[in-house]
Design a protein that fits this description.
The protein has one domain: 6 Propeller (Neuraminidase), CATH 2.120.10. It is built from two helices and 24 strands. The protein is mostly beta strands and 420 residues long. The strands form six sheets. A four-stranded antiparallel β-sheet has the order 1-24-23-22, with no helix packed on it. The chain has a four-stranded antiparallel β-sheet with strand order 2-3-4-5, with no helix packed on it. The chain starts with a helix and ends with a strand. The structure holds calcium ion. The site of calcium ion (CA) has 5 residues, from loops.
Length: 420
């Protein structure tokens, strides 16, 4: 009750201030006594840079939404540094955090209470660490506490190139190695490249794995994002043994790979379940302009490269003529131009900062901040930049067992983001 009163006061103060300045706001909402009053004061959009294109969004609020500002005093503290390209992270049952080191192809365990980092955990299959490759996302078995199984995504080097693959193995009792590591899934075809591996992995409620793959970037492979006989540019849904999960949408299509869940993706590096709706959401790298978040549903086509709000890195339009919307192709919930360069993401379900409840936090790489998105009814209604003054490339954001957010940077730092 006290928290609610405090927030209400903050809101009243903000409203008074805003009324004077003439800025718009959308009022407030009190559903029941347990609902914290959200500050819905709106500010100008956080993005003020010039867009790469004059493409028009499909609906109002699809990009450059109003800005919001967190009222609760919070801080981002560096609790560890010197990690080697941390890429993915998962919270162990005791609250410590298992982290992949991309180029090294190994794991470490971080103790968030002390900031201590373990010696590298080895025993994983060799990775191709050139370019964007290496050891990428990871997740723990829902029964990890009893079976100690870990699942990870990596770029697997093979004759003729490499591909995105999924491995699994058991974290040894002494936490020094992964025992019995096996490769359970390969996103084929193999290609000789070093870009766009996707790489995020997450369990669904039924105990199957969602895995994101990339379209490998090059013009030669890019069209395969639209091809159901290729695993490139997809979100696939597989069992713990790497087989197509039952109930997948193209199981009865003999020309399609049965593991495919959704297609037309470019390079998905963020996957998270929306705690309000239960839907799977993704973050996806666009080209220059056109980074997206999407609600991922079975069988749907997310458009790349047929539709996009971005252009080639070198400047030319994509598609002839370039189009951004087409019947039968899904529109992103939100997009950025200029880009965010979205990495891993998480919906905040902690209670330390009530106004963040159910907000989406996405690591930004080239943009060097964490994007906080306020979401209502599957639409983004507010955006804020978190830790923008740090000058870091944020690769992944997770929520710890303590309810704080933990962010991992390409430079090897770990931030704990929590109430001051
Ligand atoms: Ca798309």
């Amino acid at each position: 009750m006290k928290k609610q009163l405090t927030s209400a006061l903050v809101y009243a103060t903000a409203t008074a201030f805003i009324s004077c300045s003439g800025t718009n706001h959308n009022g407030t909402e009190i559903k029941d006594s347990s609902t914290i009053v959200q500050d819905t004061t709106k500010y100008p959009p956080v993005e003020t840079g010039k867009a790469n294109t004059d493409y028009k969004p499909a609906f109002e609020g699809q990009t450059r939404i109003a800005g919001v500002k967190t009222k609760t005093p919070y801080e981002g503290k560096v609790i560890a540094q010197g990690l080697k390209n941390p890429w993915g992270a998962a919270v162990l049952p005791d609250g410590r955090i298992l982290v992949t080191q991309q180029r090294e192809g190994n794991l470490i365990i971080l103790d968030p209470t002390t900031g201590s980092v373990s010696a590298p955990i080895t025993g994983l299959p060799k990775v191709d660490s050139d370019g964007q490759g290496g050891l990428l996302g990871l997740t723990l078995d829902p029964d990890f506490a009893s079976n100690r199984m870990v699942y990870w995504v990596f770029s697997e080097p093979v004759t003729g190139g490499n591909h995105t693959a999924v491995g699994k193995g058991k974290l040894s009792a002494d936490e020094k190695t992964i025992e019995g590591a096996t490769v359970i899934y390969q996103a084929l075809p193999t290609y000789k490249g070093k870009l766009h591996y996707g790489g995020r992995i997450i369990f669904d409620k039924e105990g199957n794995l969602f895995v994101s793959t990339g379209e490998r970037s090059d013009k030669e492979t890019r069209p395969q994002a639209q091809h159901l006989n290729s695993a490139l540019g997809k979100i696939v849904r597989i069992t713990k043994d790497g087989k197509a999960a039952s109930g997948n949408p193209f199981a009865n299509n003999k020309d399609a790979k049965p593991e495919i869940y959704s297609y037309g993706h470019r390079n998905t590096q963020g996957l998270a379940f929306n705690p309000v709706t239960g839907d799977l959401w993704n973050s996806e790298f666009g080209p220059r302009g056109g980074d997206e978040i999407n609600i991922v549903k079975p069988s749907l086509n997310y458009g790349w490269p047929t539709i996009t709000y971005g252009i080639e890195y070198g400047g030319p339009a994509i598609g002839n003529p370039p189009i951004q919307q087409k019947d039968g192709l899904e529109q992103p919930v939100y997009y950025w131009d200029p880009v965010l360069s979205p990495g891993g993401m998480v919906f905040y379900t902690g209670s330390n900062i009530p106004e963040w409840k159910n907000n989406l936090f996405i690591g930004g790489l080239s943009s060097m901040h964490i994007a906080r998105l306020v979401i209502e009814n599957n639409k983004v209604v507010g955006e804020e930049r978190i830790l923008a003054s740090e000058g870091e490339r944020f690769r992944d954001v997770i929520q710890g067992k303590d309810g704080a957010l933990y962010a991992f940077t390409d430079g090897g730092k770990v931030y704990k983001i929590d109430k001051k």
